[in-house]
Every structure is written in structure tokens, then in C-alpha cells.
Queue: 2 jobs
Job 1
Amino acid sequence: MRSSRHERRSGHEEANGLSVSGEPRSTEQYSKRPPTRRPSAAPGNDTGDGYVDHETASDRNPYTGQPFSDLYYELEEKRRALPVYQARQRIVDAVRRHRVVVLQGETGSGKTTQVPRFLLEAGFQRVVCTQPRRIAAVSVATRVAQEMDVCLGDLVGYTIRFEDVSHPKRTRLKYVTDGMLLREAFQDHMLSRYDCILLDEAHERTLSTDVLMGLIKNILPVRPALHVVVMSATLERDHFTTYFNQAPLLDVSGRMYPVDIRYEKQPVMDYIRAVEEKVQYIHEQEPAGDILLFLTGEEEIEDMCQRLRYYSRTVAKRGLGPLHVLPLYSALPLSHQQRVFEPANPPGARKVVVATNVAETSLTIDGISYVIDPGFAKSKIYNPSTRVESLLVSPISQDSAKQRAGRAGRTRAGVCYRLYTEDAFRTELQERSYPEILRCNLCNVVLTLKKLGIDDLIHFDFMDPPAPDTMIRALETLFYLGALDENVALTPLGTQMAEFPLDVQITRMLVESPRYRCSEEAVTLAAMLSVPNVFVRPRYRADEADARKERFVVSDSDHATLVCVFEAFVKHDHDARWCSENFLNDRALLHAVNIRRQLASMLKQMGLPLCSPGIRAPDRWVRLRRCVLAGFLMQTAFWVRRRDYMTIRDEQVVGLHPSSVVRHRPAWVVFHEFVLTTGNYIRTVSQIEPEWLFELSTKYYDLTEYKDGASRRALELAAGLRKMRRHGTA
Ligand code: CDP
Ligand code: MG
């Protein structure tokens, strides 16, 4: 029955009391003899009852039966130097004694990589650790598998959206995104697979972590064998302990070195330029030490990397050492991400890591002496009155700024350059970041809770209950999308929609697509809408870029244009050269290929057929446009005058985004997003025929729902035209 050696050795399901009696093993058994000598650095022999005997440790890995690799010894030494390693006994004891423990420690103290493993080795059978970010889940799981000298995906694995590198039986320590754990709870409301759940990076207060905390609070009384650890950077401590009924708090912060904070004297106009100059200044004036700088997104990061690499080539002539410039953001392939942990190359070069917020607490990079903090990050903002959710570059909080500065003091004293004035820090940055639940649309939360069997949304124990307005908006949206019925119960469509880890409108588009016989196109479109902009438009070659874009244009639809770009990319074998010739972002496109594959298999799993009218079918794009409307039915706009459109119901005056391929000002359009820049724009639009509105299965366009006003008049006009046309053809 059991196939691998490690299962025989440490998969002691029957022998270990945990899964049988629900009580974890006693503390003494875990720690009787602390490891003393190397290579007893090995996890030691498992005596068959969960007791790890370090004295009798051999050179063989108990999990695989193989001799340890050289890398193992190297990593073992490093992990033993981490602050949490000293505290491991305290941690294991506390987790055994209490149902919930809050564990807090400076970034880099070893919480994420070590604590789940301690608990596994202490006898817990199935340990799961959540991460708010995909990139962290993958990176950390990879690291832990290396540290334990096992194959990733076997004993140690990870599951993130669209990617499962774990084994249903053999994986006993799993890193997952918080969203994925919620999804698991759909099938298994009690999360009964796990006897130990770690909610990591809890201070980030993502939507999914907040929902998980509430869910787990519900589960704890019914699952006496479940133990929970809430891990966070040193922030918001009282918040967590209070929420979990005075759970004990453990602080495992290691030594931090002082960080000298330097502000700008004058406000900075162009932070990109300022960042570049600061790197140059450090490199030319300051002693050796690696640099970490924070930017807001992939494009900015890649652009900065190019500038810095160029600079690096020019300084070589002046006798200065080179820079080793490394980007870090979530869409980056794993092998590239891992490079930030490696020493600079060539040796002696100064490493410069150009990262998103992911480096703030989720990933620790050792050896950083200089941090450059422009004070911005992308964050989600939701306005319930316009129903607009946008990802905006906005100032970070003081808490975030402190975390960022802390990255410079991990291994020795460091310097943090804040590219804003001290006055701005005190008066313009809010003290802490708002939890996501207060900043985003709640459609997915509502679907999730419904699917988890939680009906009383009002009394769900959120750490920070969302605004009633936002909750009502979500219920309304889900009702119009047909996911909830009049009694606020999940409909079959809603049940299906809850399975998709995507925005509810994209989800409805996908679920409806077979009906329009264009699910192949819809899946491609959904993938393209999930990645950053694929069109590259360098300022100095804008005309050339625009001319190239013309090749892909379907003139009444940005959506169809995106599908064309994707198909051309596939036809050209994902060729990077072809992409650069055509001003396309090949990384984003590759990412889309990957997402598409996952979405397609998801559709199949759910019994939704993949179908297409065929690439030469004359009605191909009509079908797609109708299908987009079926999903984004609440996001239509009608033409009012000159360049102006008005959004239905909310009646916001907007323009078509300058990047749109739709130039002929159709009477009605459906749009993907609302963007606020210098003006109000709708971006990624398609022409629609107004009569389609009345053929949708929704109450959204019932005239009785509209007060007198521009929207009503526009709909009446559309309805009138429809009647005339019908009579005309009758
Ligand atoms: O979670 P916390 O911030 O407390 O620390 P961690 O992520 O467990 O990191 C502990 C150590 O492992 C740090 O020194 C990291 O640099 C190192 N690490 C690494 O080298 N490579 C990874 N992929 C992950 C962690
Ligand atoms: Mg961590």
C-alpha cells in the first residue's frame, strides 16, 4: 500500500497519536536530545512513533533513504543560524498546548521556511501553510524541499492558482496561496485533511486570509484536533490575539541591526529618475553592499533594470565594479526569481534587486545593505458607488515604509533612502494599510462564503467587517449576474461560478461561452485579460508600434484584437524575436498561454465543452462580442455626444481609452474596465448591438428598474429600434 520509504518511516498514521486521538505528541518526546554534532545535522531517525532521534542520526535522509547531498549540509547550517531555530522548542510547545498561536517575527527570521517543518517533525500529519502571493508559495516550497533534501511535489509541495505541484497522499507539508486553501474548503468545509494550518503573512490582511480566519474560527470548536498558527511580521499584534480570543503571542524576532533612514529635502517629481540616480550615487559613493529597491509593477521594473544595466556597462570604463541587476515580480518565471537569492555574479559585483512589494515581507533576500523606497505601491481600490475596482499606484503606509526600511538591517547595519520628505512621511502616509476587505468588491467573498455553506453573511465574524454598502453592491451584482436568486441563495450558475478563481464577470463570460459556441475564443480572451498589457509602446517609437498593432486589429472590438494577438503568438511558436518586432510583450503572452491551458482544463473538468465557430467563420467575432456582453453585462455604455459615452445606470461620462482600436463611435459598447487617469476612460471595449441587451438572462435591463434619466431614455430608444426592426422583418 505504501510506496515510498519515507512513508514507512515517517508516515506513521497509526502509530502516532495525532490522527487517532486528536492529541499531538508530547513535547518531551520531540526534544529530549537536541542535535549536537554534524553531520547529525540530518533530521535524524524516526523511531516510528513520531519521535525524531537526532543522536542516532545517520548520513541518510529519513524521508528518502538517500545519502544527504552537499547542498543539504550547506543549507542546514544556514537554517540553524535563523532566530526561529533557537525558538523551535517554544514554538512546538506552544502550538501543542494551544489551539491558536500568534507568531510574530521580523522578516527573515525563518518563520515561513522553518515553522511548518518544525510542526511536521513534531508529529503533525498534514501541515498547510498559506501565502498571500503565488511567487512566495512557490519560492518557499522550493527552498524547503531543498533544505529537507527531498523532491519538490512529493513530501513537500505547493498549490497555487493554475498550478499544483503536490501529491494528494504523499505531500504532508504544503504551501498554498490563501485563495487556494479557501477553494479546498469548498469540497471540504472543515478542512479536515489538515491537522495544522499556518496562516502566514497575516499582517497583509488579504481578502482570502481574512475569510480564512473567520472560517477557521468557525471550524475550531468542531475540530478539536486542529491547531492553527497565525504568523505575521511585527505588526498589528494585538489585533490578531484579540480576534482569536486572547491567543498566546510568541515573538521570534532575531537581532536587527540599526538602519539609518535618509529622507529627501525636497519632494521628488519623477521617482523613476530619482531611483536611478540614487543607485548611481550609492554605487559611486557608498561602501560595498547590495541594494534593494521597490517599484510598483513589472513594466516599471523591467524598464529600470534596463537603465541600470546600461549604467553598469558605462561605469566599467571608469574602473568601478559592475552591477548585477535582478528583477523580482510575480509573473517572473521561477528560475529567474530564484536568482535573487544567489550571490552576485561576477563575484564582487554589487547586487541590485528591483522588486515589487513582494520583497517587503513575503520574500527575504539576505545581504541587503541599502534600501531605496520611493513610497509607492500598486493597490486595489474599490468604489462601491461606481462599482469600479482599480489597481492604482498609491502612496504606501508608514507601516509598509518601516517594513521596507527593515530589509536593510537584516545582516548588518544599513541605510534606507526614502525618496520623499520626512514631512511627507508624517503627514501624507497613512499610519497603516487598510485590509483588502475594506478596499475591494466583495462578489467573490460572497460567492465563496455561500459555497462554504455560510448563509448568514451579516454575522460572519470578519476581523474587520466590510462596509454594508459594499456588501449590498456585491449581492446586487451577483443577483444581476444570475449567481444568486431572489432569496439570496446560490443558483446552479452561481455554484459553477464559485469554482473559478477569477473575477465574477469573466467567470460568467466563460460559463456562458459554450452557449455562444465560442468557448475557445472566450478562454483565450480570459487569459489575455488576466495578464498585463501585451502591447509595448515605447515613447520614441510610438508610431511604429501603432502601425504594427494595426496588423492584429479587429476594428469593432479590443477583445477580438486580443484574441488575434494571442493566436498569432501561438502561430509563431511563442517566438520572442517576433514579439519584439511586433511590439508585443512576450513575457505577458507566455503567461497568457499558461493561464489559457489551465482555464481550458478547468472548463473541461466542469463539463463545459470547448468549441469554436472556426477561425474563418464570418460570425466569429459577433459571437465573441455577445459572449463578452453575457459576462460584462453590467458594464455597458452608450454614446452621448462627441467623444463622450455614458455608463449605464451609474451614468458616468467617460471616453474610450486612447489605446482602443474602436474608433468609429458605435452607439453602444461593452467594456472591461474603468480607468481613472487624467480623465475617465473605459478600456478594452467592444461594439454591441443594443437589442442584445434585451436578450440577456438578467433583470439588469428591465426598464422598470430605471428612473427617468439618460440611461432610461437610451434603453427606451434601443427597445423602440428593436421593435421597429422586428416589425420590419416580420
Ligand atoms: O518568513 P520569514 O520572513 O521569517 O523568513 P523566511 O522566509 O523563512 O526566510 C528565512 C531565510 O531563508 C532567509 O535568510 C532567506 O533569505 C532564506 N531563503 C532563501 O534563501 N531562499 C528562499 N527561496 C526562501 C528563503
Ligand atoms: Mg515569511
Job 2
Amino acid sequence: MHIETDLKLDFRDVLIRPKRSVLTSRSEAQITRTFRFRHATTGWTGLPLIASNMDTIGTFQMAASLSQSQALVALHKYYSASDLIEFFGSEASRYAFFTIGTSSDDWQKLVQVKRQVAVPMINIDVANGYTQQFLDAVVKLRDENPQAIIMAGTVVTAEMTEALIIAGADIIRVGIGSGSVCTTRDLTGVGFPQLSAVIECADAAHGLKGHVCSDGGCVVPGDIVKAIGGGADFVMLGSMLAGHAECAGEIVHESVDGRQVQKMVFYGMSSETAMNKHHGGVAEYRAAEGKTVTVPYKGEVKDTINAISGGLRSAMTYIGAEHLKEVTKRTTFIMVNAQRNTVYG
Ligand code: 5GP
């Protein structure tokens, strides 16, 4: 047994110190970025936010809306091959990842879709990125897709980030147990505070010309800025995008203080709800590692993306970063005991 005693941090443990800046207006802040990848033969330009491949969030409708802001969607893996063929023939496919797990059905579906249309971005998604089987799958995926932008995860430490990049991934998804509807930490005791995980994995990835995507734990736009400040090249969002018109969640009405409010169902991909829906129930050898909640209905997602973009631009003027790529260099975190004034909630 071994104990690491240096304190690992979450978004709520820090704030970003403001710095003198020559930017005179938020409109000067460039929130899109151009990427060249370690393995993929093509680059990508856009707003590096990714809607999570949860089945309520990673929808075609979400992709259509986010592509208008040049932001990305990792499509969930429960669409049929014919629906995916139609989607990947459209404009929005430039902003979408095709998601697979390690099952042979998922891989066959990818092959089937690729026979008809190009699939330039692939997300290989497993809950635990630490197995040899997963590393082997990434090697095979790169072999079969030499040109694609491949994202793989999730992990939270430098050595596995390096191993996955060397195996063939371009972008490593970082985050275990930080998700809003995730119960992994309660159930298993395993996890890693999200900001420190991003800082450590980004440092490892960037040394190898790889990139990282911070996945899970963002609650407010400032958390996205902190993830980018910590070195995240991309940020994946679940709960911040939940409850919108573009989501696939069921709409329900709940009574709050005697008033009827519209809410939407949102659940983890390892929750009982998801396992009942896609796998005919929770298998006997495993426990659900996700929960089911209802979230306020928020209308169109473009308003939320505008709020996030506004936060990002404002943060960039506070720290003097004209381009997104400069945010990490311009970031000094200060450790804090409290984030904000809570007099009014
Ligand atoms: P959020 O942005 O909601 O905090 O986190 C979203 C992320 O939580 C997803 O992208 C995914 O990595 C993770 N996640 C989604 N569903 C589950 C689940 O049921 N269990 C666990 N452990 N993680 C989940």
C-alpha cells in the first residue's frame, strides 16, 4: 500500500487569477482553435466543446445545433447503421464523432457505415480505460482507420495517457468518477479529482503531441475555462447540455411549491435506466454505476452554448489570452476555500 500526499484538486478548489491584458473587448477573444493531431492525417478547426455520447445528449439533433457554433458531438452508439449512413453523408458530420465500444457489433456497424460514407472522427468509449483489451482495441482501430481522428478513454493518469497515444489515439478522454450522474466513486472508491487529472494527463499528452479532452464534472461555464486553463484541449459535457430541446430525454411534469414545472429525465450510461433500455436489465455480476435524475427543461441548446462562449470570451479578456491556445499559458490557479458569495443562494 502507498499513499500520495500531495493534494489533488477539483474545479471548485481553485479560481483563476486575473492578469493585465491588452484585449479591449470580448469580441477580440478567439474561441475557435485549429488542431493538428499526432496520428490523424487531417486537422480540425472549431469550438472544442463535445456533447457527451450519452444516449440523451449525443443525438443527431444536438449535432445539427452544435455544428452551427462549430462545436462537436460524440454521437451515442445506439443509432442504426442506416441512420448513421444518412447522418455521415450530411454537413454536420464534420462536427461529430462516431462512437464505438469494444463489442463486435459496434465494430461491424462502423465497417458497414464506412462502406458507404466517410467517418473522419471516431470515439472509442469504455468506462475503464486501464485494460490491456482496451489498448489492443485502440491499436486495431488505428490500423483500420489510419486517417481518422481517434479519441479514446477514459483514464486519469499520465502513464495510461501515454500508452493510449502510443497505441494510436489522438485525443485522450480524461475523467473517472467526476460525472454528474456517476456513482463510481461511491460504489468503488476509485477516482481522481478532475482538475488535477487534466493537468497531469495534459502534460503527458502534450509531450507526445497528443491532446486531451476533459470529460465530466463541469457544472458552470467557469469550470470549462478552468479545464482549458489546466491544459484540456477539448471539454466534454453531459449535464450542462441536459434538459434541452435537442436531447432525447423524456419530458415529465413535477410539482414544485404547488406549481407544475417541466423537467427532463437524464441518466448515467451505466445507470439502471440505461441498462434496462439497452441491455435488457442490469447483469448479475455488475452493479449500476450511474443514477437517474430529472433536470429543469432549458429550451434550445444554442442559448446555453452562447452563455458558455460568453463566459469563455470574458475569461480570456480577464487573463489576457487572445487565442484559446494561450489560455493555459496565461492561467495561474489560486487555491481557495470558497468560490462565491452565497447570500442569495
Ligand atoms: P457531466 O458533464 O454530466 O458531469 O459528465 C458527463 C460524463 O459522465 C460522460 O461524458 C461520461 O464520461 C460520464 N458518465 C456518463 N454516464 C455515466 C455513468 O452511468 N457512470 C459513470 N461512472 N460515468 C458516467
